[in-house]
Amino acid sequence: LGAIAMFFTAYSYSTLSQHISSSGSAYAYAGVCINPAVGFLTGWILLLDYLLFPTLVAVLGGVAVHAILPQIPVWVWPLIYVAIGTGVNYLGIQQTAKFDKLLVFIQLGILAIFVLLIVRLLMLDSSQITLSFRPFFDSQWFTPGLIATAISVAALNFLGFDAISTLSEESEGGGRAVSKATLLALVLATVLFIIVVAFAAFATGNVDRFAEGNATNVDRFAEGNVGGIWLKVAFSIIVAFVCAVGNIITAQTAVSRVLFSMGRDRMLPAFLAHVHTTRKTPDYAILFTGGVTLLLSYLFSGKIESISTLVNFGALFAFFVVNLCVFILFNFRMKAQRRIFAHVISPIMGMIVIGYVCLNMNIHALILGISWAAIGIAILCYRKAHNQNIAIDLEGKKLLD
């Protein structure tokens, strides 16, 4: 249900990426479909998501591994994660893609081992495995109110597919390749989520044994239940490391392209638009992102909830604007190409879903997010007062590695 809820937004990203080929993603979409000022504000708020997400991952990964290896200070892990992520990104998009593939194969391998061990345990001693449809449907908890709340939470687990749109200027297939990849990413994530949750539930049995708020312990318990303590420790370390590095690489790839695009348009300092002469990557933006991520990792150490809520605010705002862009573009400026589902029903449903998810957002996140937006508005007012140009450059040099 969470995937279905996010499908509408993914479809909007897929639609716009075919018509607007820019590494600026939601920033460029809003600037072209609405106006450059809204584009800047969207990009500014989007930075909350793209700059803080690698910070969140670095902090989470550090805490996870430190719990298993307390001898190593927790601050060491974010340093390692960010150094690897920044280094890989600096080498170029082709090297980044190869490294990402390696990390994906490692994670798929871990998932395959986990599933095979559960199947093996079922064959050896079926009493330890609870095969039921309960992970998918439990009449005791299946009420409209709880399901609606659960959807708003589950939908946030799909954040990230939007980052693909930042590679529009570098992908060999251009906007069409990005369009297909966006929807494919959502489908694959949904399938993998279902597999992990279902098999973890099968191996766990009665989840009522876990205290409220400790649902994340289910996977760790399941690992220990099917493979013993060695699997629990090994998987925890490997998954924490691989997920942290992989997500930091992806997030830094995305945010460096948005910073590059905004720097190219002089919406942010121009040095962010610098392109490496041989690697053809926004090298200054990548290094800037790495430095900011490292700094924020220490400033926000132990404040995981605060980071995650701000990340959600930035992403949800951008999602809402992207859906709005599709509706405006095809209902006012490109009426001849309008399709009812793709350009009317889908974006409206996307805005409704995002609006509902925002209703369940932490009030402190809303206050901080609105405060960040207010800073962006103040910058806009300053630029206009000093007659500084506000425009989106879609003719800028493409990054081809």
TrEMBL record:
<feature type="transmembrane region" description="Helical">
    <location>
        <begin position="182"/>
        <end position="203"/>
    </location>
</feature>
<feature type="transmembrane region" description="Helical">
    <location>
        <begin position="281"/>
        <end position="301"/>
    </location>
</feature>
<dbReference type="Pfam" id="PF13520">
    <property type="entry name" value="AA_permease_2"/>
</dbReference>
<feature type="transmembrane region" description="Helical">
    <location>
        <begin position="75"/>
        <end position="93"/>
    </location>
</feature>
<dbReference type="InterPro" id="IPR002293">
    <property type="entry name" value="AA/rel_permease1"/>
</dbReference>
<feature type="transmembrane region" description="Helical">
    <location>
        <begin position="313"/>
        <end position="333"/>
    </location>
</feature>
<keyword id="KW-0472">Membrane</keyword>
<dbReference type="InterPro" id="IPR050367">
    <property type="entry name" value="APC_superfamily"/>
</dbReference>
<feature type="transmembrane region" description="Helical">
    <location>
        <begin position="51"/>
        <end position="69"/>
    </location>
</feature>
<keyword id="KW-1003">Cell membrane</keyword>
<dbReference type="GO" id="GO:0005886">
    <property type="term" value="C:plasma membrane"/>
</dbReference>
<keyword id="KW-1133">Transmembrane helix</keyword>
<feature type="transmembrane region" description="Helical">
    <location>
        <begin position="340"/>
        <end position="357"/>
    </location>
</feature>
<feature type="transmembrane region" description="Helical">
    <location>
        <begin position="233"/>
        <end position="260"/>
    </location>
</feature>
<feature type="transmembrane region" description="Helical">
    <location>
        <begin position="141"/>
        <end position="161"/>
    </location>
</feature>
<protein>
    <submittedName>
        <fullName>Putative amino acid permease</fullName>
    </submittedName>
</protein>
<feature type="transmembrane region" description="Helical">
    <location>
        <begin position="102"/>
        <end position="121"/>
    </location>
</feature>
<keyword id="KW-0812">Transmembrane</keyword>
<feature type="transmembrane region" description="Helical">
    <location>
        <begin position="26"/>
        <end position="46"/>
    </location>
</feature>
<dbReference type="GO" id="GO:0022857">
    <property type="term" value="F:transmembrane transporter activity"/>
</dbReference>
<feature type="transmembrane region" description="Helical">
    <location>
        <begin position="363"/>
        <end position="382"/>
    </location>
</feature>
